[in-house]
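User: Can you help me understand a structure? I only have the sequence.
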Amino acid sequence: MIIDDKFLMYPPPPPYFSSPSPSRSSHSPHPSITSLPSSHPRASLASLPPHILLQILHRTFPRSALPDQGARERQRKTLYWMSTCLRLVNRAVYTACMHVLRSTYLGAYHALIRAPYTSDPFPIAALPPAAMVVDSPLQTVQRETPVLDRFIALKVREDVFADDSSLHLEREDSFRDLFDVSQPRARLEDLVRVYGVRAGVVSVPGGAARGEARGEARGEEGRKKMYAGSHGSSQKPIHPIPFAQLSISFNPRKVGLVLGRKRTIVEVPRMKGRRETLEVIARGIVRELGEVR
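Assistant: Let's start by predicting it. Here is the structure, written out as tokens:
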């Protein structure tokens, strides 16, 4: 090893700090050199714009195959890694990962919907900003969206296990409970929210500012039409129930609207053979709720 002495004659360059500090300047070997203050925050994944973060996530998907693994299998493992590890980093990464996962598996989710049930995990009619659930990373009151997320968590696991071993058999009942009970119940709760806000018997946070679907004016008009015939000219005040306190008890014979945890306030019988749509059941629940209110 050859060491040139002339490189050891000069001290190393001074460090650069984010802001000037008197204590650091006084002990610096070069007092005449001052550090440059930085007006920009420190860059991180959370500070990146959403479209840049999505581009980074899309770049993580492998494009080529390995000798013992195809490109599709490697991409499914990347989706499994996003679902179990990457989305837990922070809220910005969670939102970007769920955008990729939901757009990938939404078609498979819709293919398993039982007829005559319907599905709408991402409604077109947006809620006002005040109606967003701030404490939840989902940022929505749509109750079918968590059902889609549970389906994704199960689907990515089953796909990776099937790729790793030909002996892995997907159980027939893996998605049965999800699409026989959870999905129609969550979809029915969303429909009760939509129809209930229109009729003025259900309220959501921020609904007084903009309303939902077609606004608070439609809700007032719906209340008058619904109860004018049964109560004559007397109009008793209707106090809407907060949607956060409502849930649905769903079984083959009847459907109930539950207030709180155990109190059933409305029950609607179901037709035999599960032939009625969820929209018909939701309208019946809202009609009965208006009568008991």
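Now, to help you interpret it: Residues 208-220, 227-233 have pLDDT under 50 and may be disordered. The radius of gyration is 29 Å. Let me know which part you'd like to focus on.
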